[in-house]
């Protein structure tokens, strides 16, 4: 689960280095890498800490918390059922949805393990962990698609993640938050929103340049200049994203120090302390386990996309751009809406816009560099239709975020914009993928 927002890092890591004296006899620690206090303060958001030395803090206790605490884990057997169907009947129309459902709980538990590990590593390292594993699912799926040579699936799935996060997730958060809080407008930190919008526009620039170079036939070396430009731009984007992470973590530390010196943020009292539920090495082990199983299920998922498209008679572009991002990030989407309903809109923006920034400035260029090392011609030329959709989306979102407020109507506009984009990809025939031009297989309602 992706979270770039400073408030969300405060939620995950607490203020373990707070200068305020602990209450109700709690033991204080000067270093935020030490264990959390044994006697938690009596505040609303604090959770009881498991005793580090108790028998409950073992393999079975960890399995109980990680595997049985989340109801989403009931979907994990779907992934194994997909593997069974693939080996027995090879019915790709069932393998794709089942493997996708199996990935959902694994992605959510991967985020949980990352958060738990962040409680032991300190604020800075925890922020870097969230930045690294935030979109691990998309990264794993992209690597498997690159290995299979399905470059358009990589491009369209990553593009779809950006579109769904910026339009659908953010729109649902604005709409749900406006209804639940009963306010005319909700406020969020405008500075973070503007910074993320700027990075999204930079990513659009990186995608527009190769596309225009290719479609205007102005390449110095036909078919090679756009690829070379994409690889150069990807390296620049990775450097820019690393600088953004450093800037964000430094600013977060300064804000926390200023907040502690001024008596703390009143609005964050419920999330003042967070305690680990599993040990550090258990978190590391679960990270490896969940990443490995996501990789296994992703392999079957990618191989089944084309077969599912033929079985369902819908375009691969629609599956890659709409269905894959929505279902694959369902847990993350729900968390963004949940925080908006609780009037924690900065956290919702960290999930939605922060995730889009991470995909556009890290996952996409990383996929280009990875394809370069694999010998695959993965580039930033997402073609005119996809690039234009992204450009318009980023401009709409940046315009709505510039005043630092949200309301129900803004959320409704973003949701309706996403419906238009989704319908566009349903009737879009990708010229690079065969079998998508037969309009007789499309649903009738789109032609009314």
From TrEMBL:
Matching PANTHER family: VACUOLAR CALCIUM ION TRANSPORTER, VACUOLAR CATION_PROTON EXCHANGER 2
Pfam families registered for this protein in UniProt: Na_Ca_ex
UniProt keyword terms in alphabetical order: Antiport, Calcium, Calcium transport, Ion transport, Membrane, Transmembrane, Transmembrane helix, Transport, Vacuole
Domain Sodium/calcium exchanger membrane region positions: 94-247, 283-425
TM region(s), chain numbering: 72-88, 158-181, 193-215, 227-247, 283-302, 314-331, 351-374, 380-401, 408-429
Superkingdom of origin: Eukaryota
Sequence similarity: Belongs to the Ca(2+):cation antiporter (CaCA) (TC 2.A.19) family. Cation/proton exchanger (CAX) subfamily.
Protein name: Vacuolar cation/proton exchanger
GO terms of molecular function: calcium:proton antiporter activity
Function field: Vacuolar cation/proton exchanger (CAX). Translocates Ca(2+) and other metal ions into vacuoles using the proton gradient formed by H(+)-ATPase and H(+)-pyrophosphatase.
Single Gene Ontology BP annotation: intracellular calcium ion homeostasis
Predominant localisation class: membrane
Record keyword Cell cycle present: no
Keyword Oxidoreductase set for record: no
Annotated compartments: Vacuole membrane
Organism: Panicum hallii var. hallii
Membrane topology: Multi-pass membrane protein
Stretches the record annotates as Disordered: 18-48
CC terms in the record's Gene Ontology section: plant-type vacuole membrane
């Amino acid at each position: 689960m992706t979270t770039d927002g400073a408030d969300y890092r405060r939620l995950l890591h607490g203020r373990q280095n707070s200068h305020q004296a602990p209450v109700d006899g709690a033991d204080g620690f000067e270093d935020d890498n030490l264990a959390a206090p044994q006697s938690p303060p009596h505040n609303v958001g604090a959770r009881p800490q498991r005793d580090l030395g108790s028998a409950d803090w073992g393999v079975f206790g960890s399995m109980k918390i990680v595997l049985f605490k989340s109801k989403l884990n009931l979907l994990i057997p779907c992934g194994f059922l997909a593997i069974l169907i693939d080996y027995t009947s090879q019915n790709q129309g069932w393998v794709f949805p089942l493997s996708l459902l199996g990935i959902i709980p694994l992605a959510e538990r991967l985020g949980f393990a990352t958060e738990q590990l962040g409680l032991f590593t300190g604020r800075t390292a925890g922020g870097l962990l969230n930045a690294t594993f935030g979109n691990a699912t998309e990264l794993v799926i992209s690597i498997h698609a690159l290995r299979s040579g399905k470059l358009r699936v990589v491009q369209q799935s990553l593009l779809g993640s950006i579109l769904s996060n910026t339009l659908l997730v953010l729109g649902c958060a604005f709409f749900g938050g406006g209804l639940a809080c009963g306010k005319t407008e909700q406020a969020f930190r405008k500075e973070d929103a503007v910074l993320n919008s700027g990075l999204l526009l930079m990513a659009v620039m990186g995608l527009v340049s190769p596309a225009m170079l290719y479609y205007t036939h102005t390449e110095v070396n036909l078919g090679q200049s756009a690829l070379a430009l994409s690889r150069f731009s990807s390296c620049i984007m990775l450097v820019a994203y690393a600088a953004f992470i450093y800037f964000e973590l430094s600013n977060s530390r300064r804000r926390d120090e200023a907040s502690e010196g001024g008596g703390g943020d009143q609005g964050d009292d419920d999330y003042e302390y967070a305690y680990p539920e599993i040990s550090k090495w258990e978190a590391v082990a679960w990270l490896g386990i969940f990443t490995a199983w996501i990789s296994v299920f992703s392999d079957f998922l990618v191989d089944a996309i084309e077969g599912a498209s033929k079985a369902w008679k819908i375009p691969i572009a629609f599956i890659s751009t709409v269905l894959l991002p929505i279902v694959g990030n369902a847990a993350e989407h729900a968390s963004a809406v949940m925080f908006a309903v609780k009037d924690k809109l900065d956290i919702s923006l960290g999930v939605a816009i922060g995730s889009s920034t991470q995909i556009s400035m890290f996952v996409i260029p990383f996929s280009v560099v990875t394809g370069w090392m694999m010998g695959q011609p993965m580039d930033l030329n997402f073609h005119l239709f996809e690039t234009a959709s992204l450009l318009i989306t980023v401009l709409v979102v940046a315009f709505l975020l510039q005043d630092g407020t949200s309301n129900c109507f803004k959320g409704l506009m973003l949701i309706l914009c996403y419906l238009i984009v989704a319908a566009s990809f349903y009737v879009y025939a990708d010229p690079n993928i065969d079998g998508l031009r037969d309009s007789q297989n499309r649903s009738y309602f789109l032609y009314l």
